[in-house]
Amino acid sequence: MKLAHQNQDPKKNSIFELGMQILVVIGRIHKSFKKLSLLTRDASADKLEKIEFKELILDTLFLSIDKFKSASIPFKATDPPTNVFVLCRSVQISQILLNLISNSYKSTCNNPLDAWVKIDYLKNNQFLEIHIQDSAPRSVDLSMENSLIESNGGQLQQIADDKICHLVFSLKIAP
């Protein structure tokens, strides 16, 4: 939102700037609330839909980034590929991604000095892989997420590694 405002009084300018910052924060809270309200519903009866992956992942990452910043945990997500469409129930995929990212957050909080979380993407002929890695080596029970991912035509696996936790979440690319 841009408003034309010019005032010679520095106190009034700072009040105006503070008001604009408050509007930005309110906008972010509203956006978060809308996204969270969508994610709390049962989407098991939804039909598979063709959706752009970039839109799906950016909406989900938006809900996660602030908690990493406030805990000073480095969170790096490479730019998602553009013009890649996946066939899925977007609400379920967002729920799963949010859960996996939240698990990384909780696990890395135990050792915040060396903590980090990283998300990368790899596209092959039939699948788009989402690699979620963090600095807290552990074995993760993926049974609940696996059944949901499989119902969306995807796969979830943990890559064995003694030094980090590395999950690979694959979604089928839509024709």
Structure keywords:
43% helix, single chain, alpha+beta, two-stranded antiparallel ribbon, five-stranded mixed β-sheet
What does this structure look like?
The protein contains 5 helices and 7 strands, in the order H-E-H-H-E-E-H-E-E-H-E-E. With 175 residues, it is α+β, with helices and mostly antiparallel strands. Strands 2-4-5-7-6 form a 5-stranded mixed β-sheet. Strand 6 and strand 7 form a beta hairpin. Helix 2 crosses helix 4. The protein starts with 9 loop residues before the first helix and ends with a strand.
Topology:
Blueprint: H1 10-39, E1 49-52, H2 53-62, H3 65-70, E2 75-77, E3 85-88, H4 90-109, E4 117-123, E5 127-134, H5 143-151, E6 155-159, E7 165-172
Parallel strand pairs: 2-4
Antiparallel strand pairs: 1-3, 4-5, 5-7, 6-7
Helix pairs in contact: 2-4
Give helix and strand order, one letter per element, not per position: HEHHEEHEEHEE
Specify the helix fraction band: 40-55%
> Which residues sit in consecutive blocks of at least 5 with pLDDT less than 50?
1-5
* Quantity of strands, as a count: 7
Shape: globular
Average pLDDT works out at: 86
The span between the termini is 38 Å
| Beta fraction | 15-25%
Report the C-alpha radius of gyration, rounded. 19 Å
| Biggest sheet details | 5 strands, mixed
The number of helical segments is 5
- The assigned structural class equals alpha+beta
Going across the major beta sheet, what is the strand order? 2-4-5-7-6
